[in-house]
Amino acid sequence: MQQIIVQKYGGSSIKDTTRIKNTANRIKSYQNQGYQVVVVVSAMGKTTDTLLSLAKEISTTPSKRELDVLLSTGEQISIALLSMALNEIEIDTISLTGSQCGIKTNSVHSNARIENIDSERILTELNKNVVIVAGFQGINEKGDITTLGRGGSDTSAVALAAALKAEKCEIYTDVDGIYSADPRIIPNAKKLDTISYDEMLEMAKLGAQVLHPRSVELAKNYQVKLEVKSSLNNNPGTKIIGEIDMEKIQIRGITSENSIARISITRVPDKPGIAYKLFKTLSDNSVSIDMILQNLTHENVNDISFTTPVEELNKVSPIVKDFAKNIGAEDVIIKDNVSKISLIGTGILGHGEIASMFFETLSDLKINIEMISTSETKISCIIDKSHSLIATKKLHEIFFES
What we know:
The chain has helices at residues 17-32, 47-58, 64-88, 120-125, 152-164, 197-205, 213-222, 274-284, 313-327, 352-364, 388-401; strands spanning 4-9, 36-41, 93-96, 103-105, 114-117, 130-134, 137-139, 145-147, 168-173, 194-196, 226-230, 238-241, 250-269, 292-296, 301-309, 331-346, 371-375, 378-384. By secondary structure, the chain is α/β, with parallel strands linked by helices. The chain has two domains: 4-244, Carbamate kinase, CATH 3.40.1160.10; 254-401, VC0802-like (2-Layer Sandwich). Helix 1 packs across helix 3 (64-88).
């Protein structure tokens, strides 16, 4: 019985017809090795950004349902062109949209989650074709097109690998693997041969843009063998594995995330249930929340702060202001010029010298820390965005180059 391999190619790997042809040749080489190949693709290059810009020229608040219909066309262009390129080198193919290949999601437009995959058609087609799947999309119970959020093609690929019981899932991008920092801003960043699911999940959540966090969660839950590789060469990539030694300190990476905002509600009445009501309200409105801080103050009041993606500010701001008014809080302060700097690894929390070095570095740079969050695998803090680059470079120098 032939083994199934799932490969995902990002927008940079198929950004023009030359790279589409190169990708077709790579896929052919795997078929020649005896694999049954399922290929998941993103939209070409900056297609998604172009489509979003078109939508915003029409409406500042487009319907999320119609936005899904629009954005899903980017991947449909990719699957058709890649299928044609494979046909030209005598490979039989079939291109399938998310709905055609049985990806069923919930009904949260623009950020849907996969509920199940009916893999029957893919398995049938694999007997005679390379199957090319449009990533980032599925179909809900009403038959409407849904999308999985930016980076969702990674999640499509891992979910398909789990459903098909694939031998492995390869994620192709324009870098050689996972690095200790973004190699585009830290030239001395170190490539990692392996990284655990937990470490990779933290890096993905904290700003590393190589893998979508939900794809790593799926890979961990279903023990999918995952490897990140470059589509521009044949170098070994980074393998994401399950083993983790929590007693050993292993510093894996430094990340910075700049597309976030900090929202603070000041002088909140110090009464039971206030925090619950706030975050229940945000949850009911599908607002993404990351770091949370409550400051104890005098006079039976306190401040509550949290971070959220910048792109959600237009939705979040009126919700929080209404809530603050209703509970008698003093003010709402919104900062969209902040950055989250994180150190990721294993065994961090149990070793005070790691935290000490982290905070000492920021202190030496005279960078003020606005919020702090820690776990067994990360230390994160919120700082002013203007200090993001110098903080990232110096922390990488301290932990990886010294």
